[in-house]
Amino acid sequence: MKRPGDRELYSFVPEKEDGSFLLDFLSSRYKRFDRSGWEEEIRNGKVKVEGKEICLPLAVLKKHARISYYPGDLPEPSANLTYKVHYEDEHYLILEKSGNLCVHPTGPFYRNTLWYQASLVYGELKFVQRLDKETSGLLIAARSRHAAAAMDNGRTFLHKEYLALVHGDFYGRIHAVGRLVPDGRSCVRKKKRFLFAGNDGNTMGEAAETILVREKAIPPDMTLVRALPVTGRQHQIRATLYSLGFPLVGDKLYGKDETLFNRIKNNSFTEKEKQLLVLPRQALHCAVLGFDHPFTGKKILCRCEVDFFSSSGV
User: Fold this and answer.
1) Mean pLDDT score of the chain
2) What domains are there in the chain, each with its CATH number?
3) Is the pTM of this model over 0.70?
């Protein structure tokens, strides 16, 4: 059973750098070390070319070659590494994660991820869908490439329901059909906004469809909303609620004040600003997850509750 190995950072040699030296390639591209630092890393066997250890700083590279760097154990930010198994068979797992845990390795996170921690127990996993670091709840992991491919054939039905805590009095039911486009008014490049579908034939952005239903009011001025995504776009629920005038509680990007996002990145986030968020993480939780099992034909359905104001870190 394959388990996660050492962390690998890799890139490929572009055509214009065909024939360049390994040391030149690394030192000009990555500022982690200067030339002498990269030379030491190469001689210590931390760099591979096409899977082969290369200890020669002046090794000549060929175009499209894979250059791998193995940094070893690096300090990582803390995370809530606990998870719960809601369903298990030989093909799939349904896991519940906290609202302070990345699913996949990203940025400074490698061992402090759900992928790494669960793979230590179950072997290397392939997640069928993603959740943001601060989104808690259920997600499916395939236990083999064969199982992952069976879920990615476009025919397997996935049922997902999210709970979202929003600012304002969300009333009734909204069937939001439209498109997600870049938010040109935002100072954050990756932010999106939702536009309702019209008769103008506009096909820009990504088609997005979400059913939003009021669950209950949360005093003094918040509402618990159930969100059923028909499509599965990145930031879909968060961007849709924000564009409708109901920003997610605790959301640094799609909340009441998006400038908090950059201030957090720049470590200029004050205690007073933390209080404005109400919660330390975005109040979004995948509460229901179901699928038609590709191999048995059975309908699998799991549910998990959430208390956004709990101190448990969920």
Assistant:
1) 90
2) 9-69 (3.10.290.10), 162-285 (3.30.2350.10)
3) yes
